[in-house]
Design a protein that fits this description.
With 192 residues, the chain is of the alpha+beta class. It has three domains: 28 residues; 95 residues, Umud Fragment, subunit A; 32 residues. The chain has three helices and seven strands, in the order H-E-E-E-E-E-E-E-H-H. It has a seven-stranded antiparallel β-sheet with strand order 1-2-7-3-4-5-6. The chain is elongated and about 100 Å long. The two termini are 18 Å apart.
Length: 192
Amino acid sequence: MLPEAATSAGGQPLRILSEPLRHARARGSVARIASSVLLVGVVLLILVAIAGMALGAWRFTVIDTGSMRPTLNPGDVAVLTSEPTGDLKRGQIVAFHPPGERQLTVTHRVFSIRRTGKAIIIETKGDANNATDAWRARIIGNTVWRESLKLPKVGYLAVWSQQRPIRFGLLIVIVVLLVGMLMGSIWRPSSR
């Protein structure tokens, strides 16, 4: 006996509307598609960023101090691109290692350039600083890393994600989402 032909206790035919079920399936389908597109988009963005860094097209540096305010604020991420040292100009923002500080990367504005034979020596200054930096940085090689784009406040995520409990929690969230999507595709009722 079909559900449409069933009768209730009073003898009236019982009608079951299937329209709300169609809407619920459509909403679920849209949600699945949107979450899949979002997941694929995030994965592609991460792969492009990693590929660009591996190929030497760009680098990222998190701004830790306020020495470059208002141009670069603490928590911003500076996207650095490689530029030939011959194109280096006064006023550009560059990333470099100060003399004797191989572990420290400073991102400051070029205040002056002195070219001596093969060497290029730059004097730098942070926008918020009153005086130029105490050192003169020597550019080694044919290229320099120049700031070409700023990603405001993204650096806070990078610093935050360096904490072990946060990384573990993010890993758990990603695994739960992937397992949920997989189980949803396995247990999804087939459309007839």
